Please model this.
Amino acid sequence: MSNPISQAVPKTGIPGLIENWRSDLLSGFLVFLIALPLCLGIAMASGFPPMGGIITAIIGGLVVSRINGSFVTINGPAAGLIVVIVDAVADLGQGDAMAGYRYTLAAIVIASVLQTLLGVFKAGKLSAFFPSSVVHGMLAAIGIIIMAKQIHTLLGVKPAAKTLLGTIAEIPHSLMEFNPEIAFIGVMGLALLIIWSLIKNPTLKMIPAPLLVVLMGLALERYFDLDHIHNYAFLPDTKFLPHHEFSIGPAFLVSVPEHFMAGFSFPDFGKVATLEFWEAVVAIWLVGSLESLLSATAVDKLDPYKRTSNLNRDLTAVGIGNMISGMIGGLPMIAEIVRSSANVNNGAKTAWANFFHGAFLLIFVALFPLLIHEIPLASLAALLVFTGFRLASPKEFAKTMEIGLDNFVLFIVTIIGILATDLLIGVLIGIAVKLLIHIARGVKLSNLFTMAYHVKQTDENTYHVAISGAAVFSNFMGLKSMLSNLPEHKTIFFDLSEANLIDHTVMEFIHEFSHDYAHSGGTCEVVGLDEHEPYSDHPLAARRKNLA
Model:
């Protein structure tokens, strides 16, 4: 019996617009309400002007949605790239924020050319090379860094530290020296986000929490009169508590130009011959491409119609969008999972929802720039602190520990490596440690980057995939490519009886491939694991063959 959902898969292109414009328009509008404050917050946390984030989302909606290979993803700036961009601005500007911004735009343009080439040459599968625990460690480290930097803004305090570890160490000082009225706005926004995440009522859930945080921030901004510089005393002067006076004003509000066209800036390629410029290019290119591929894959799992994105086409489209964005003052974009998840939950059917979200952003910033100026920075900081916590929540640590101690160690090593050095070096440290673990477990150097497997078609509808030796993150890209070319609606047996080591990344891939293949009408079965000993009780834990 055929799946009823598959018969009703929405059309694409203009026929899809005609068929689904009502649901896509509504979802696009609701996503726009979420995207507006997030785009502003991400831009400012990245060291870019607030309009930089809006420009990115507009291009992601109006341009990328028309040429990408996905269906319900929303393209725009993401929290995961904050760390890369803010480091690039600081390193390239060397104290001059505007110069650093324009040099970083140039790095984005060149990184986007490399990103486009990745898609053109069908290198989307390279995302498989990154071990799962390293990727999760990278995201958790990004979450920690975002929280460490934004807590100060939420409290209304500007940290004096210039380094990341110094900024983290200064958090207790900011907690002691918080600006009460600004902190009240930030803490109330954070509390609202926490409460909203606990609400189960689907009708209330339709109201985007970021919108409520911004509306509350606007109301409190009026009440505290942040439009005008003035001082206030928080507590009366007493013998035991000396008088403490605080200053507030427009510096605590979003700064945007009065006219939309004044928000554009252009790249400066003056540092193209320097090492730090190319370090920024490589970091933006690799982290942006990896995050976009991972997010697009994750969004496919949320799609009720179970459509599969063309990752290479998606990467090419995002690269083109980033090129345009970098040329006119915007941040790099990815397939953003939070907004994409909201898009699916709001009933989006096609990529036109992404288009409409970009169109609404363009209309709003063109017509109401002064309203954006009234948004308190503390409200945006609350959104980012909450986002950072979700990336680095205790649940993420617990989930990694469940998979096995080796994965947990790798997760922690990646986090520490990133916090102590930078994002790119930290990820490379994580990959190096993973390779050393495999070597310690007996993987031969010749097997580290080459997997031994054999595919045999036993009848018209049955394929046997036999894997021998080690099956690990660094050698299974060939297997992944081969499987993507197998016909649908067949029976596939994975025979792992001759594999002496299968790591978590490969176990996870086989599990997800089997699930997706079965959903599309085929059958997958894994055999030959009876003599393998897992490293933990987790069903997808790494395991080695018991040679006793």
User: Anything to note?
Assistant: The chain has 23 helices and ten strands. The longest helix spans residues 13-45. The chain has three domains: 11-386, 394-440, 445-545. Residues 1-6 have pLDDT under 50 and may be disordered.
